[in-house]
Specification:
The two termini are 29 Å apart. This protein is globular. The chain has 5 domains: 3-97, 3-Layer(aba) Sandwich (Udp-n-acetylmuramoylalanyl-d-glutamate--2,6- Diaminopimelate Ligase, Chain: A, domain 1); 113-321, Mur-like, catalytic domain (UDP-N-acetylmuramoyl-L-alanine:D-glutamate ligase), CATH 3.40.1190.10; 331-464, Protein-Tyrosine Phosphatase, Chain A, CATH 3.90.190.20; 472-692, TIM Barrel, CATH 3.20.20; 706-829, Lyase, Ornithine Decarboxylase, Chain A, domain 1 (Beta Barrel). α8 (210-218) links the parallel β11 and β12 (226-230). It is α/β, with parallel strands linked by helices. The structure holds pyridoxal-5'-phosphate. Pyridoxal-5'-phosphate binds at residues 500, 548, 629, 670-672, 686-690, 696. Keywords: ATP-binding, Cell cycle, Cell division, Cell shape, Cell wall biogenesis/degradation, Cytoplasm, Isomerase, Ligase, Nucleotide-binding, Peptidoglycan synthesis, Pyridoxal phosphate. Belongs to the alanine racemase family. The modification N6-(pyridoxal phosphate)lysine is found at residue 502. Residues 705-829 form the Alanine racemase C-terminal domain.
């Protein structure tokens, strides 16, 4: 749906500068996601850390002409649109708060529709319930829903904006992290049907109590006609009672027959769950093709919504039986013939295609691979084929896709719209056949695989995928960004950040981590040695890089790749100056390290006068920053010492700064310092462990980033009197089922974990290590666990905190993380 710019000016109450006529179809908040410049309205949002107005000149150059911006931002970036200026053909809509304006516009947009709107909130399961409702209800009506998990103060307005004349039902998620946020979301979504999935501890840090959080979530349901929740959860039931909603309630219950939706039986079979229920005095049954508790809970919430929307019981039964798992992430996998595969089986609509293409485009910039899209028919959009594929073709062009492979009859009829290298197939089998027979060759390409479920692209991915070593380290880039933002939230807006990616990014793999951090505009990256830095440069990382342990033999590498060394002694400084002078280099940035108590590396504060004199007497290098390192900032026990370090640092660093006219950045905080000594931020902080999801203070897990996984190779029954493994160490006290898994000490699984000292998880159950851990394999006890060969085993990660292992080993999580051997394949994904 389009809006004239005049209409928008009125809705958001903006002062308009510029009088270019314009029609707006697209709202944009992330400049990297631009697709349709002419019809886009860009909101220059300001956050603690950033100001979207920074990107206006670039967006203007790419054709965007309409901007919502605050007065302060216009001043800050000097984007003044008077006639004759560089922005003379633009409209600037000046408001006091661009985020509020975005929300206001979405609110107004929402007002125009009378269709049912489902609002989903809760701690877990929001996205799955949303997607399942879509699977259950989309046969009868056109559904608009949040792309992926767009559930924030920004994501919700962008989701609601997608509603149009065809929409027969809308499903939106709402997520909050702070008190007060839900009111804004309620205003935008205005749900008529509310679903509260459940309440857990996530995002608890800003809430006083669980009850406060629950009540806040319930604010979403203020004007709902009906509210759906788990009536057996007493805590939730109490909160609902307290919140005095006027809505009808469909609380489902497995215990209380008086509840509106009574769940009589939940019977778990091998691979499905049979559920019977009574609603309005009618008894019915359905079979859910999942057996875990979370899926059962999610299905019951969906059931209640379907019943309320009067979907007939036979249809519910039939469609519940066909529910598909929801893949919530873009998976990046290594393909055959030098290809990189991006697998997005999440869903298939224009919004998620846009996001996935954007992801592909950004990944492609550094690896030089050809950009290819494999796309099936996009189903159930309510749009006519030719409009739909015209838009797809526009997206494909704007993301500079070089080759398209279409699957399905509809996309095939629009082949002529794609004037790039192309091929079309009637169905997935035909495409797979062409690949297997060598008629279609995919080589050195980065390929986005995106298909509606019906097309079964999983099988296609399997064909294209390179089979990997069964042991992998999964790295969740989204979680890492959440951690970055968590720490950013603790900083003053102007404080800069160095992200530590040394030791292969604490084991997570430096390139992908560095690339993601660079995209999120961190100020510096830091590695230990020059070779780590040059590898990053060769892979296309352009951010500033600090070398913490510069080797004297590697100065040339540092100059060549612009890697900025730390200097910690006169010996090192002299050698560096000499080498730089020899190469004719001037003003090469260096980072001066002071020893304030660690007694490892660094100039003593008393060295300052001599250091200043030496630095001033040459122009080969120039101090860019000065820093020191805390000894025990994680522990109150050392607080007096830490404060002395701060005082010492303050004094010595001021002395250095005063000797120079240019700004020298000062920094001392590591992750623990950021949390515990916010007053010591100076100009910059150095974030390490916290970025990887482990709290530096109590080792609790923030957002878990790395998960080490493997698979069961073989299972055997072993009599009680036998032993398992080398040296007959693995004694059994009963007849046991023993599974062998392909991970050993050469992969980084410490031998001290063997002989029952620790465990891993098999299908969610603890399986202890039996006998000695071998070099490449080890054995675990699965006697009481329902499992089979090929099942996944978690060594540490999302469900088994790494600290369980580091505690057993009497070490710190840093050591366990960095011990995962390089032969273990890293797989990256983004939520
Ligand atoms: C590793 C390192 C950090 C980061 O420390 P964390 O405890 O992981 O946050 C900061 N500064 C220096 C000098 C380091 O070597």
């Amino acid at each position: 749906m389009s809006y004239s710019i005049e209409n928008i000016v009125e809705i958001i109450g903006a002062q308009r500068i510029g009088n270019v006529s314009a029609t707006i179809d697209w709202l944009l908040t992330d400049s990297r996601s631009l697709s349709f410049p002419e019809e886009t309205l860009f909101f220059a949002l300001t956050t603690k850390r950033n100001d979207g107005a920074r990107y206006i000149p670039d967006l203007y150059a790419r054709g965007v002409r309409n901007f919502v911006v605050s007065k302060e931002s216009m001043k800050r970036f000097d984007v003044q649109p008077f006639s004759g200026s560089q922005f003379s053909t633009a409209n600037f809509l000046v408001v006091s708060n661009p985020l509020k304006a975005l929300q206001k516009l979405a609110e107004q947009h929402r007002e125009q529709f009378q269709v049912p709107v489902i609002g989903i909130t809760g701690s877990n399961g929001k996205t799955i319930v949303k997607e399942w409702l879509h699977q259950l209800l989309s046969a009868e009506r056109v559904i608009v829903r949040s792309p992926r998990s767009y559930n924030s103060q920004i994501g919700v307005p962008l989701s609601v904006w997608q509603m149009n004349e065809q929409s027969g039902l809308a499903i939106f998620e709402a997520g909050i992290s702070e008190p007060g946020e839900m009111r804004a979301l309620q205003n935008i979504i205005k749900p008529t049907i509310g679903i509260l999935t459940n309440i857990g501890g996530a995002h608890q840090e800003n809430f006083f109590s669980l009850q406060e959080k629950c009540m806040e979530k319930l604010a979403l349901f203020k004007n709902c006609d009906v509210v759906i929740y788990n009536g057996d959860d007493e805590f939730i039931s109490n909160c609902v009672a307290k919140s005095m909603l006027s809505a009808r309630e469909i609380a489902w219950s497995r215990k209380d027959m008086e509840r509106p939706l009574y769940i009589g039986k939940v019977e778990k079979k091998d691979d499905c769950t049979v559920i019977s229920y009574r609603y309005l005095d009618m008894d019915n049954t359905f079979t859910l093709p999942f057996i875990d508790d979370a899926s059962v809970e999610n299905s019951l919430n969906c059931l209640a919504a379907c019943l309320y929307l009067m979907l007939p019981a036979e249809k519910i039964t039939e469609r519940m039986g066909r529910l598909e798992p929801v893949a919530m992430r873009l998976e990046v996998k290594e393909g055959k013939n030098g290809c990189v595969l991006i697998n997005d089986s999440y869903n298939s609509d224009l919004g998620s295609l846009d996001i996935a293409l954007n992801f592909l485009y950004r990944r492609s910039l550094s690896n030089g691979l050809k950009r290819t899209l494999i796309l099936s028919d996009i189903l159930e959009t309510g749009q006519n084929t030719s409009t739909l594929y015209r838009q797809v073709a526009q997206l494909v062009n704007s993301r500079k896709i070089e080759r398209i492979i279409g699957v399905g009859s509809e996309i095939s009829t629009c082949a002529a719209r794609f004037n790039i290298e192309n091929a079309f197939y009637p169905n997935t089998d035909a495409l797979m056949n062409a690949v297997v027979k060598g008629k279609l060759r995919l080589e050195n390409e980065i390929i986005l695989i995106k298909g509606a479920r019906k097309f079964g692209f999983d099988a296609l991915t399997e064909v294209l995928e390179k089979k990997v070593h069964e042991t992998i380290l999964e790295v969740n880039l989204g979680a890492m960004i959440a951690n970055l933002n968590y720490y950013r939230g603790k900083l003053k807006p102007e404080t800069k950040i160095v992200c530590m990616v040394k030791a292969s990014a604490y084991g997570a793999g430096s390139y992908e981590i560095a690339k993601t951090l660079q995209e999120h505009r961190v100020d510096y990256l830091a590695v230990a040695v020059a070779d780590e830095g040059s590898e990053l440069r060769k892979a296309g990382i352009t951010a500033s890089i600090i070398i913490m342990n510069p080797e004297m033999t590697a100065f040339k590498t540092m100059f060549d790749y612009k890697l900025e060394p730390e200097v910690y002694s006169f010996g090192l400084l002299e050698a560096l100056i000499k080498e730089a002078e020899k190469e004719g280099i001037t003003n090469f940035p260096v980072h001066v390290k002071l020893d304030t108590g660690m007694h490892r590396l660094g100039f003593a504060p008393e060295d300052m006068p001599r250091l200043i004199e030496r630095l001033k007497g040459q122009n080969a290098v120039i101090p860019r920053s000065v820093f020191s390192h805390f000894v025990g900032s994680d522990s109150p026990q050392f607080d007096a010492f830490t404060r002395r370090q701060i005082v010492m640092f303050e004094k010595a660093s001021v002395e250095l700064q005063e000797a120079f006219a240019h700004k020298i950045l000062r920094h001392i905080c590591n992750s623990a310092g950021i949390e515990r000594f916010p007053g010591a931020q100076f100009d910059m902080v150095r974030l390490g462990l916290g970025l990887y999801g482990i709290s530096p203070i109590d080792n609790s897990i923030l957002n878990n980033v790395s998960t080490l996984k493997t698979t069961i190779l073989q299972i055997r029954d072993v009599p009680a009197e036998d032993t398992v493994g080398y040296s007959r160490k693995g004694h059994l006290n009963r007849p046991s089922r023993i599974a062998a898994i392909p991970i050993g000490y050469a992969d980084g699984l410490n031998r001290h974990l063997g002989n029952g000292h620790a465990y891993c998880l098999v299908n969610g159950c603890k399986a202890s290590y039996v006998g000695n851990i071998c070099m490449d394999v080890c054995m675990i006890d699965v006697t009481d666990i329902d499992c089979k060969e090929g099942d996944t085993v978690e060594i540490f990660g999302d469900h088994l905190p790494i600290t369980v292992l580091s505690d057993v080993l009497d070490t710190i999580p840093y050591e366990v993380l960095t011990s995962v051997s390089t032969r273990v394949k890293r797989i990256y994904y983004q939520d």
